[in-house]
Structures are given as C-alpha cells and as structure tokens.
UniProtKB/TrEMBL annotation:
The entry's keywords: Cytoplasm, GTP-binding, Hydrolase, Metal-binding, Nucleotide-binding, Ribosome biogenesis, RNA-binding, rRNA-binding, Zinc
Source organism per UniProt: Anaerovibrio lipolyticus
Record note on cofactor: Binds 1 zinc ion per subunit.
Name of protein: Small ribosomal subunit biogenesis GTPase RsgA
Cofactor: Zn(2+)
Length: 298
C-alpha cells in the first residue's frame, strides 16, 4: 500500500504528499478521506502524520492507517515535528514570562527534540535583554534575538530550519508570520493582528499546514499554538519538564515531593543557593497550582 505524509487537513479532507515526492511551493497532493474505522477516533490523523492509503479510481484516496508518530504537539495538533521555535516579542505585546514558561513546558511535554526561544522586535527595545534571558540560557535553551522588520537573526533562524520540520509557537501578534516572510518571501503569509482577529471571527477551522522553505527545511504554519491545555499534565511529571530541575529531583527527601511546601527539597535548596532562578520556580508553582485546581474542579 502506498505511504505519504499529511501536509494539510481541511473540512474532513486530508491532503497527502506521496512518499518520494518533494514538498514544493505548489505540491501535487492527493486528497484523501479517512476509512470509517479510524474516522471514529478523534485526532487519529493530523497534519504531519505519515499514513498508508489506498488509491481510488477517481484519483482520490482513502487513508487506511496512521504510521507511528515521533512527536505530537497539541492545539492545533501537528505530528512529527523536530523542532519548535517559541516566539515572543520584546515589546508590543510585552513579553510575559509566565506565558513563555507555559509554552516551554508544553514543548517539553510534547517531547519535541529541539526547543529554541526567539525574541522578536529587538528594534523596539533600546536596552539589552540579556538579563531577562539568563534563566532560560542557564536552563540550556538557545535564545535568538530577531527583528523581522530590520532583518536581524534571520540567517540564524534559516540555518536552524535546514533538514527539519519546525513549528513556530507563541502568542498572536509577536511576529511569527513576519519572521517567516523574512526567511522566505515566497511564503507570503498574512501578517497583522487585525487580520487574525477577523479570521477567528469567521470561525475558520484551526488547521495547520506544512510549507517548504527555499533555503531548506519545512515550517508549520498554524493559526497559533495555545498553551492552555497544560492542566491536563501529570503533576508528578511537571518538574521534569524544567530541564535544570531534573538533576535536583532525586535530592528531595520525599519521593512524592511536589517541591512546594515539603522540607529538605532539592529544588527549593537550589533556589535558596541561587542555582535555579526565582522566575522559573515561580512559573513551576503557578503551573502546579493550575493542575491542582483543575483536579479539584472534577
Ligand atoms: N517593530 C516591529 N514590529 C514587528 C516585527 N515583526 C512583526 N511586527 C509587527 O507585529 C504585528 C504582528 O505580526 P505578525 O507577523 O502578524 O504576528 P503573528 O501573529 O505572530 O504571526 C504586525 O503589525 C507586524 O508588522 C518586528 O521585528 N518589529
Ligand atoms: Mg501569524
Ligand atoms: Zn522537592
């Protein structure tokens, strides 16, 4: 049976690129439906999935089976992403560190192998943001400073995209589409906060789409990832999604330690010694609290 990759989904159709074909600006895609059996499972096939399909006489196809996924990012769902570039603006809108941490945890939870932070709109920030980024650099994240308007950081992002499937996550209005257009003008993505609001008002389907970049690599264009689903994650695993907390967890006296109120906690001791940052610890507590509140509501 032939296999291929789902490049986009729309209104119950799945557009598949046959294996061996190249993803170009205007690729030849096979429009497929789902076989009833997998149709009944919500989210069984999403953009980025590798699938087996049967060709029908009329030139369309039927997806019979989804092949195993490397990764799955939620809201909107995209499978098999190699890298996520979490994008925020330094100004307009002002950077919100709690939200940045929520996006980082979302990416760690989704098991995305490469997680990069991109801070856009450097042209609006006269001062250095080095102090702001220190906790994230210390945690092991690569941070790129960029300006889509002044073409700063564009070459660095281009080199990161090569050979990978990369999603740009982050709040709306930070300049994700503008950065992608600066990276490859052929993408000609719509920019501007107002146009996005109009789109949402029209109840367009929240669909993701894979796009090739001229300088190499594939990017995922999405209407924007949401970091709202974090309440679903297991509170016992949360600390492990903060890479710099990982080696400290085994130093906790209680193996059920939530690193909030317990004595002799490896993470709280590291905080007191200045080894981990207050900002990251506060984000941990905040997300922990939202998980606990959700549990209570049920
Ligand atoms: N000053 C400045 N504005 C930018 C920059 N990048 C994007 N913008 C503006 O920010 C707004 C939102 O950009 P857009 O790319 O649509 O953001 P998205 O919602 O993240 O895709 C638009 O008005 C852009 O012109 C930048 O580097 N500097
Ligand atoms: Mg956009
Ligand atoms: Zn602890």
């Amino acid at each position: 049976m032939p296999t291929g990759q789902v490049i986009k989904t729309y209104n119950g159709f799945y557009y598949v690129l046959e294996d061996g074909r190249e993803l170009t600006q205007n690729p030849e895609l096979l429009s497929c439906r789902l076989r009833g059996r997998i149709k009944r499972i919500k989210g069984s096939v999403v953009t980025g999935d590798m699938v087996e399909y049967e060709l029908l006489g009329d030139g369309t196809g039927v997806i019979e089976k989804r092949l195993p996924r490397k990764t799955l990012l939620h809201r909107p769902s995209v499978a098999n992403i190699d890298q996520v570039i979490i994008t925020f603006a330094l100004r307009e809108p002002d950077i919100n560190s709690l939200l940045l941490n929520r996006f980082l945890v979302l990416a760690e939870w989704s098991d995305i192998p490469e997680i990069v932070i991109c801070l856009n709109k450097t042209d609006l920030l006269p001062a250095s943001a080095d102090e702001f980024v220190k906790p994230y650099v210390d945690a092991g994240y690569r941070v790129i400073f960029a300006s889509a308007h002044e073409k700063q950081g564009i070459e660095e992002i281009r080199s990161l995209l090569k050979g990978k499937v990369t999603a740009f996550a982050g709040p709306s209005g930070v300049g994700k589409s503008s950065l992608l257009n600066a990276i490859d003008s052929n993408l000609s993505l719509t920019t501007g906060v107002i146009s996005e609001k109009i789109k949402r008002g029209k109840h367009t389907t929240r669909a993701a789409c894979l796009l090739p970049v001229a300088s190499g690599g594939i990017v995922v264009d999405t209407p924007g990832f949401s970091a709202a689903e974090l309440e679903q994650l297991d509170k016992n695993l949360l600390a492990g999604y903060f890479p710099e907390f990982r080696p400290l967890i085994e130093k906790c006296y209680y193996n059920t330690c939530t690193h909030s109120h317990e004595p002799d906690c490896g993470i709280k001791n590291a905080l007191a010694e200045g080894i981990i940052s207050q900002e990251r610890y506060d984000a941990y507590l905040n997300i922990l609290q939202s998980i606990l509140e959700r549990k209570k509501a049920y």
